[in-house]
Design a protein that fits this description.
This protein is an alpha+beta fold. 53% of the residues lie in helices and 15% in strands. The chain is built from 12 helices and 7 strands. Strands 1-4-5-6-7-2-3 form a 7-stranded mixed beta sheet. Strand 5 and strand 6 form a beta hairpin. Helix 1 crosses helix 3, helix 2 runs antiparallel to helix 3 and helix 6 packs across helix 8. The longest helix has 27 residues. The two termini are 41 Å apart. The relative contact order is 0.13.
Amino acid sequence: MSESTSDATATEVFAVHRGLLFSVVYNILGSVCDTEDVLQETWVAWADRVRSPGGEKIANPRAYLVRIAVNRALARQESISRRRETYIGPWLPEPFVAAAGGGPADAAAGDAADAVLRAESVSMALLVVLESLTPLERAVFVLHEVFGYAHPETAEILGRSPAAIRQLAHRAREHVQARRPRHEAGPRLRRQVTERFVAAAAGGDLRALIELLAPDVTLVADGGGKAPAAGRHPVHGRDKVARALAAGVGRFPDGLDIRYRRINGAPSAVFFRGDTLFAALTLDLSPSGEQISGIYLLSNPDKLSHLH
């Protein structure tokens, strides 16, 4: 095989699997920018392997690429953890926002966006829960629960024994199930509640907010110290959250354009100033869908820059 032929083959195979790789790594890291870096590292390793003279043919390119990507993602967790140690205020994962009509907001990442959005269970709320797992538990959960990898396959990817993987999977699943409802409200109801919430918050309507909020609601506002937020800690409880919202948290400067998009597959609101995304809002509803149990408001421009 000539060098040009091997280059073309490497590129074609990587392109076929890029959407899957993006989705797996993004769900492990919760960061679009870090995911793109990991995919670049994966591409370099893959291309070098394909071009290597006399190297054995890779029988299962998909498995090979996933193994490289997942382990590169785990290696990157250390630098992400260091960033979080000095982060100002609550931390939220970087959102992935779909544009009107279902297409990705960033056309260059179209295939990757589609792959993420097809993983319907990985909502912003679930990503927040996954942040509390160990890196290995999170990788096992994502591979097994989200993408359906069997424990022996996961063990091979992570270089662990199947018994160790089963133990990690059990701990991760119990942790997630204790914090996430098994059934979530449908997209139409989520859109309706989101519109009602935006109207009440924008108008400072305390009574309407209290009616919408569950007693144990949590508000997480991530400004990263660079944009208005609700302080350095999440706000818990209906009364405190309603007062914070009525006092101005969630209100933005005049002239912002409110649009309804999908954030990590869920109907949500995004706020634009001209063509620039100013903030992203997604809600977590109670199992009945009648009240809001979680409010995730992200206005840190660093976490929105990939959407510009």
